[in-house]
Amino acid sequence: MKKLYLLGMAAALACPYTLAEGTAPAQNKEAFISDLLSRMTLDEKIGQLRLISIGPDMTHEQIRKEIAAGRIGGTFNSVTRPENRPMQDAAMNSRLKIPMFFAYDVIHGQRTIFPIGLGLASSWDMDAIAVSARTAAREAAADSLDMTFGPMVDISRDPRWGRSSEGFGEDTYLVSRIAKVMVQGYQGKDVSAPDSIMAAVKHFALYGGVEGGRDYNTVDMSPTRMYQDYLPPYRAALDAGAGGVMVALNSINGVPATSNTWLMQDLLRRDWGFKGLTVSDHGAILELVKHGVARDGREAAKLAIRAGIDLSMNDMVYGKELPGLVKAGEVPESQIDSAVREVLATKYDLGLFADPYRRLGKAADDPQDVNAESRLHRQDARAVARRSMVLLKNAKDTLPLKKAGTIALVGPLADAPIDMMGSWSAAGQPTQSITLLRGLRDAVGNQAQVLYAKGANVTNDRNSLAFLNRIIFDRTEVEVDPRTPQAMIDEALKAAANADVIVAAVGESRGMSHESASRTTLDIPAPQRALLTALRATGKPLVIVLMNGRPLSLVRETEQADALLETWFTGTEGGHAIADVLFGDYNPSGKLPVTFPRSVGQVPMYYSHLTIGRPFTPGKAGNYTSQYFDEDTTPLFPFGYGLSYTTFDVSDVHLSSARLKRGDTLKASVTVRNTGKRDGETVVQLYLHDVAASMARPIKELKNFEKVFLKAGERKEVTFNLTEEDLKFYNTQLQYAAEAGDFDVQIGLDSQDVKQARFELL
Ligand code: BGC
């Protein structure tokens, strides 16, 4: 059943990106680019390094003039063929007819919106994630886009950071696996194909490590942590063939990424061998002045081009300053040439020299209505979304619900079409997203009654509302019901009084988990908590459906709820997908890709922390061990956790040998049994711990996993192969090697509840 909608994906993903035969211009790529470069004036070269946002700053007419004069290399934020075609026409009227490329933040869908990054990661399902990326690419390419600023693979271990929602969580291995699949999905097997787009992985590097979870802040990190935990996902995206890299806004140990020659040259180009395109983040070059490393725009441009930033995103600084810098001999023209080469090579790889209208197509074929239903991929979105939810609690088998009787659906997120889509929802239309109210009503038809009451505003805090409805959005994001909180609760209680079960959709509005949206608390906002307390007091079964873009602190809500379902922001088909799970038409199989702390005071809290001298042992409260005395020291929900409507049992770990010789393979197996009454899927997770090494090592690290489907009563042996490669780490000298000695293999269905066996690496 699962594979039906995935047909063809395996074949499509098998091959990394290559240029299709027959699409290249006559000459080979290098010769073609060298020839073109030799014919370009300095101004034309610098023009290629400018990436301009379509927006209020420049009218369309001005942009077309600039393009025709050879002064713009690409644009972003214009997302339809009729918008982009005149720009390509202008490029075709320029002296050298160098095609434009069109980019956009296609992060979790283009027109059909899939779950946000944290949701996709919760599926632990690489096929489903591939479908989301491939579909996004097809839709984006059909809208004439050539490139996405994605995937976003920043490891985030601080849920105060609003951009946690965009990425794939806290774990290096899981995020790296997803990074690869996303890139392959976007680029397909041939990035020059008319239905592929190029991936520009972001934000290079370490953006998720910003101090205090405050967006754009500094990152101060030890080299071992960088290499071991934070850098591998970017590398995985590049190894999968990502054509571009977007550079982070933060500084790294004092040096902004945008002027960081160690990052951009030594690491990216020299050590990793990256040959593609580098793009600054929005306005980041000029921000070097604010960072305090450049006196003015001129020095900022010089630092950035010298560091190796090819494209300047939306600041005028390259166009303004580079001509003078070259003429004054402060920037060698060869430096400009190498950046231009990369831009031209990108356009070549995208197939744009062979056909500048490759993704634009013919005007006669333009869709009449870009938002036509026929352009959406609802079935795929629903299939992926239902895999992305995590069942956190299900006391007394409250779920699945019956399609009978009366259901009270309450909460400010129960009928919130904008929020369903999550932030960075590209060209998705709220009017096309299925809310939970709609999803429940569609699911029950006339078999049951659904009573709806909003019950509370997302928040009543004026400052928060002013922030959430700030001017950058072209619509009111968070509608505020003018009734008093009590009047709204009373309405919800009335619905509850007439119902057999209450479903409360609560959490965050999507803007609360977005760029620049850092929080000092992880609580559900006060009016919603008051609503939940009132609902709990009714004594009726209470199902809490969470919508949010970061781990929240849910101690009280976990006690109040009979069932707790984390849905993140589920996308266009979210309401249907959540209903599928609530009614058991799909048995939830998601697992948390992030740790849920009990309170913000525990942050940062992640499962793979280093071993320490005085660890706290649960159940053995002792003095002078690492603990909080005023709160439980453990997380509320651990990494990898998630329930199902059935139950599973994992056997002891069987190792093929107690010793591993370098070059050999050791097999670690368990038997997993579905011990419940329903068919279901779970994720078998393998963690490793290096018992004694030359430096402290994580208490455990995910090294492999397998999602398995088991019929009720069925058992299956799951075997993982372990080699020396799995045991390697970056030591204090940054040498990547496995050290001889004992290793614990832990296998389980979350990061805490595991079975363990030991072997020795010889
Ligand atoms: C964000 C990037 C994004 C860019 C273009 C920036 O503010 O940090 O992630 O790609 O805007 O929209």
TrEMBL record:
What is the name of the protein in this document?
beta-glucosidase
Give me the reactions it catalyses: Hydrolysis of terminal, non-reducing beta-D-glucosyl residues with release of beta-D-glucose
Q: Which residues form the signal peptide?
A: 1-20
EC number(s) on file? 3.2.1.21
**Record's InterPro entries?**
Cellulose_Degrad_GH3, Fn3-like, GH, Glyco_hydro_3_AS, Glyco_hydro_3_C, Glyco_hydro_3_C_sf, Glyco_hydro_3_N, Glyco_hydro_3_N_sf
User: Which terms does the record give in the GO molecular function aspect?
Assistant: beta-glucosidase activity
Stated family: Belongs to the glycosyl hydrolase 3 family.
Q: What class of enzyme is it?
A: hydrolase
Q: Which organism is it from?
A: Pseudomonas quercus
Its keywords, alphabetically, are: Glycosidase, Hydrolase, Signal
Q: Output the superkingdom of the source species.
A: Bacteria
Q: Does the keyword Signal apply?
A: yes
Domain (Fibronectin type III-like): residue spans on this chain: 682-751
Any Pfam family hit: Glyco_hydro_3_C
Keyword Hydrolase (UniProt): yes
